């Protein structure tokens, strides 16, 4: 376990390597929040948007504020490195070490998230306090459920992107494909807008597919859109999808390593 | 004039070799198209929300907004055509790669910032942008006489020059600092302010975005001109700002270049 602790600390150090860049990157999340807040404020003050979109004004504002932060917290970004290790033979050094590659990536991923969480936690606290003061039904139970679902969302997103990274065993040109997948999954997870505002088939798909359970589900717990029954079902979906992707990752790894040619390294 | 002709011919050569490269690595080209289409989904979501709400923003109906966002999509394609050169500038500075170009008998800024063109990024934005512009133009019942079309194209051209000039500035910091990841994020987020027409923002934001850091001029002025919403002074500013900012980018490029120390080449 001590080796994984070192990997965790290494991830933390790596995240803080370029501090100015790190904080500017966090700051860049503010701009889309401004754009969307302005847009929602305008729409809600000039039309019956609550009836059209199914979110109250306060709920959608809280969603806008928190979804970008949650999206950054659960975001992966290691899939390119996994692919690079497979392509360039960097995997060799992990295969001969008494360490599971999946857990190595997982603990480094967690370590890299710590500084982001340290910055995001006070911001989220202020936002939630303001939302509570504005009359949104934020309670200790909801905050706790939100934090649990956020953690599970991180694990789920890690599992999804770990599988995507392992595609490097079979595909030769995937760097740009990762870009596409990353963007599409950000949209599908509700990281830009809550997709259930479009209703019908889109809402059904969001409820069934795993992506919404990384971002949209945690945020909809805290903004009061989901009742306790829906929250319970959502946790069930989160755990089930984590299990599915964890098994898929193990299967892909076993099959992939057999194909691995260990070129270079 | 001879110099301009020479640079136009050089631009043609760059375009030819970039196109040949794109056709040689076809999978790269296709994945590049899919990446850009992924980003486009986000832009189209904004339009979908406006149409779903069915609300006008000031004098702008949803059809006008379709035209404005179409202009933004189109300009994004033009920006992405040479964006890769901006992104690789910090790396070239760190690796001493500028040495290879600095001795060539041609403007270093021209060579470094326009030598590689990504047609894969231009293509989807160009096609979808033009469709959105034409559709919005027709649905909104805007005039399509020679003067209107010429004015619209003129402000599009001005927007192209302004985009180049404004968004090169953050990358010049690569001459001073090592990691530009966060600055790139900020500048991209700034570009995204054009996701919505400037009329949706508060007056003070519009003024800053029009006169201090004129990102709103890039995608709003062509549409506003068509609607007859630009007064004479705004037209003058729309034409003058690209020239002023281009001169500024030239000046700052020359100042920044003095910092180049030709490391590790």
Attribute tags:
heterodimer, A: mainly alpha, B: 265 residues, mainly alpha, 75% helix, globular
Descriptive notes:
The complex is a heterodimer of chains A (265) and B (265). Chain A is mainly alpha-helical and 265 residues long. In chain A, 75% of the residues lie in helices and 0% in strands. Chain B has one domain (2-257). Chain B is built from eleven helices and no strands. The longest helix of chain B is centred in the N-terminal third of the chain and has 34 residues, at 62-95. The radius of gyration of chain B is 19 Å and the shape is globular. Classes of the chains: A mainly alpha (265), B mainly alpha (265). At the A-B interface, helix 2, helix 3, helix 4 and helix 10 of A face helix 2 and helix 8 of B.
Instruction: Give the end-to-end Cα distance of chain A, rounded to a whole number of Å.
Output: 26 Å
Sheet-strand content of chain A, in percent, reads under 5%
The total domain count of chain B is 1
Helices of chain A, by number, come to 13
Distance between the termini of chain B: 36 Å
**DSSP, total strands of chain B:** 0
Work out the helix count of chain B: 11
Could you tell me the mean pLDDT of chain A?
Answer: 87
Order of helices and strands of chain A: HHHHHHHHHHHHH
3D shape of chain B: globular
The quaternary structure here is: heterodimer
Q: How would a crystallographer describe the biggest sheet of chain B?
A: none
Judging from the principal axes of the Cα atoms, what is the shape of chain A?
Answer: globular
**Poorly predicted runs of 5 or more residues of chain B:** none
User: What about the largest sheet of chain A?
Assistant: none
Structural category of chain B is mainly alpha
Helix- and strand-based class of chain A? mainly alpha
Nearest-integer average pLDDT of chain B: 90
